Amino acid sequence: MSLRPQIRFAPFSTPTEGCVILLAGDGGAFSDRAREGDPDGVLDRATGEAKFKGKLAGKFDLLLPSGTNYSRIVAIGIGPADKRQEHDFIRIGGAAYAALRAGQAATAVLDAPDGPCSVEEVMRFAMGFFLRSYSFDTYKTKKKPDEDEKADTPVELTVQCADPDAAEAAWKGYRGVAEGVLAAREVVDLPANVLGPVEFAEKAQKLSEQGVEIEILGWDEMEALGMGALLGVSQGSERPPRLVVMRWNGGADGEKPIAFIGKGVVFDTGGISIKPAGGMEDMKGDMGGAAAVYGLMHALSARKARANVIGVIGLVENMPDGKAQRPGDIVTSMSGQTIEVINTDAEGRLVLGDALHYVRDRFDPAFMIDLATLTGAVIIALGNDHAGLFSNDDTLAEQLADAGRATNEKVWRLPLGEAYDKLIDSKNADMKNTGGRQAGSITAAQFLKRFVGETPWAHIDVAGTAMGSPKNEISSGWASGFGVRLLDRLVRDHYEKHEG
User: Fold this and answer.
1) Helix orientation angle between 288-302 and 197-205, rounded to the nearest 10 degrees
2) Of 4, 275, 306, 413, which residue is the catalytic one?
3) Which of 107, 110, 124, 367 has the most C-beta neighbours closer than 10 Å?
4) E strand map for 121-209
């Protein structure tokens, strides 16, 4: 995997050499400070000739500018100040990283035409720069003929800003969140022969080094708890299941925890209801919900969040073995409710049903949020721009929507209701695990709702956003890490005890 950039912060001064990154405002305007290193006015003339207008995250590259010792000047557009949104500086930082080469050193002068960037803007720029550094190249053994000889050397960035001490102090927490996103991306990208339930659990175990309490349940422990729904999914695989419980105790003693639960099907063949062969390789990413919860726990513990948080991931592999469950089988969940398995490819909800009941029964959380690459139907409904949101609590739903707008990890609320719930009633058991093609994402959410009781709860279907989502300034690969920044923001804004 690509090396992480080295980022440091420094006061404003005129760079003397190397690659310099400058911010271009609306119309391609630069601040007076940005022009200090360009005494011949080459940049203004060049951008004018190229009709570079400073469009948000747009780039203008000037090589060996005359009158300077710079190797390059890279201008990144920041758009008009009155239209700038919170997420934009993350995009700008990502665009800056994309303009550089491996092993290159650069200086970014974060002074805009409307004034020096705030500490928050500096942090978002640095986060975007860090996030764009990710590429999944672990299994690449040969370099391309034109690949730079410094490919194994990290990019070094000096960020000039108005308050470097404050930026340096804040960066540790922001870097922790960015690392959580990259950790989520990595487990989604890893092939299933490398990352099974046991190996994923071992990665989660390492969070204990950051103060997260880890508990890992195997088959015997889950069988003793009566988790027949989760274990039914796993029984066709030679690889044993795991339920990983992660606890971060950063809040007040006795304060109710908040809980996040992730679907972790490390590979989904569909089981006996086997999927078509075309595209099945992508089902290594059917643990994108568990990846987000794992990344979130990394983020919260790295930045020492002042909240009590539970993260639970149910890890299984769904295989069509001779021991695999069949369509028509009836399983008993931990809650005591029985489920007729109509389609073994509707397996994620079986894993989550037991995990949700376990968290509710053991921890009595203030709320529960589950994330899952649960249905293809949500992609038909929303494409790749929004995750599907379902909830039994209007306040929690609105908080998630606000966090989505702030981070650009957007969610769209879809309905729940009695008419949809009736579609999963079974004549042979308490419920069936699919209601058919119509309203497929909604009936899946209705299924999960039967395991949450009165606990405030939200379900986020990330099938269209966690993997194979469109490339952008901060994510150039297959796995996006969707959900980590969204949920970190939710915790930060609404459920964390702040000093003062």
Assistant:
1) 10
2) 275
3) 110
4) 156-160
User: Beta strands of 319-386 (E only): which ranges?
Assistant: 330-332, 338-340, 368-372
CB 419 within 8 A of CB 445: no
What residues does 261 pair with on adjacent strands? 312, 370
Within 383-483, residue ranges assigned H as helices are 394-407, 418-421, 440-449
In which residue are the tokens 């080295």 written?
A: 6
The residue with tokens 């690449």 is: 140
Active site residue 83: no
Instruction: Dump the DSSP string for 283-318.
Output: GGGTTHHHHHHHHHHHHHHHTT-SSEEEEEEEEEEE
pLDDT digit string (tens) for 260-286?
999 999 999 999 999 999 999 999 999
Q: What angle do CA 436, 437, 441 make, to 5 degrees?
A: 95
Residue linked to tokens 């730079």: 148
Q: What are the tokens at 113?
A: 């035409």
Confidence label for 488 from pLDDT (cuts 50, 70 and 90): very high
Average pLDDT over residues 313-330: 98
Q: Which of 33, 242, 349, 450 is catalytic?
A: 349
CB-based contacts of 206, cutoff 8 Å, min separation 6: none
Torsion angle, alpha carbons of 364, 367, 371, 374, to 10: 80
Residue tagged 């794992």 (tokens): 294
Spatial distance between the Cα atoms of 16 and 37, rounded to a whole number of angstroms: 8
E-only strand ranges, 220-272: 242-249, 258-268
Cβ(40)–Cβ(67) under 8 Å?
A: yes
Q: Report the sign of the C-alpha dihedral through residues 55, 58, 63, 67, in that order.
A: positive
pLDDT of residue 153: 85
